[in-house]
Structure formats: C-alpha cells, structure tokens
Design goal:
single chain, 157 residues, alpha+beta, Alpha-D-Glucose-1,6-Bisphosphate, Chain A, domain 4, 1 helix, globular
Length: 157
C-alpha cells in the first residue's frame, strides 16, 4: 500500500492533507499531523479513510506535538429529516484512534467538549471549500493544488 490509498499508487485517489488543530488545554497548544487519506463516493454515501504519515512539506518543530499513531475512518450519508419529511439530514459515523500519550479520561474529555465545535466549523466551511474546489476540478478528479499532491511539487518522488 503506502500513502493510505488502499493499495493505489500515489496520485490515483490518495491525497495528503495538513492539519493544525488547537487543543482545549493550556498545557498543549498545537498539534500537527500529515494525514494521507482516500475517499470514494458509491451511491449516496461518502467514505473516508485516513492515517498519519510523514511528509517532507510538514516542518519539524519542538513547539508542535507530532502524532505518529493516528487512524480514522468515516461514512457520511443523507438520511430523511427527523421533523420534516421533505427535508434531509447528514449522518456521519466516525471510527477514530489517535495516541497523544495522555490519560484516557483527559482524551475523552477533550473529544466530548471539542468535537461539537469541530463539527460546527466543518459544516460551516465545507460548502465554500467544495464550491472553490469545483471551480478547479470535478468531484472525482485529482486536485493538483491539494497539499501533498505529487502534481504540486511537494510529493515524494
């Protein structure tokens, strides 16, 4: 495999994205991970799989906590609205693992209190992101401007 693309070669559906989430703790300020992910959209569901990988475009810094052990998978699909038959909702199922090296109760607290803020921000920003991406490429085309794309000049040779 390599690159998290489910056995596909780099550039055939595997993208690398950079993230810098802010943690809800004064003892840890920033974390950074380079994530290789792949997604496919059969029928009405969207699936994503991600894992931590090293990437030459992500700077090494003693101020940033590296997370080498990270795996995440999700499914997003449209479901009928709960209160109005003519409306629809989005159902997302997430399976996630990461090892920050902190106690489990603290990790559970951070997820419980931070996940809703993340989901609200993601929901608010996704339509603009998708619209800007659609100006460049179609829904199943490789985006040469994606972070880590081999076509952007920062992928591994």
């Amino acid at each position: 495999g390599g690159g998290g693309g489910g056995g596909r070669e780099r550039g055939e559906g595997a993208l690398t994205t950079g993230t810098t989430p802010i943690l809800p703790s004064s003892s840890m300020s920033f974390s950074s991970s380079s994530v290789s992910s792949t997604s496919a959209s059969p029928s009405a569901s969207l699936y994503g799989i991600a894992k931590a990988v090293t990437h030459p475009a992500v700077p090494v810094s003693s101020d940033i906590l590296r997370m080498d052990s990270f795996r995440s998978a999700w499914r997003c699909r449209v479901v009928p609205g709960l209160w109005n038959i003519r409306s629809s909702c989005c159902e997302t199922t997430l399976l996630h693992y990461e090892n920050f090296g902190i106690p489990e109760h603290l990790a559970r607290f951070a997820v419980r209190h931070g996940m809703w803020g993340f989901v609200k921000t993601l929901a608010a920003k996704t339509p603009d992101f998708v619209a800007r991406r659609r100006l460049r490429v179609g829904p199943y085309e490789i985006d040469s401007l994606a972070f880590g794309s081999p076509y952007a000049g920062c992928g591994r040779e």
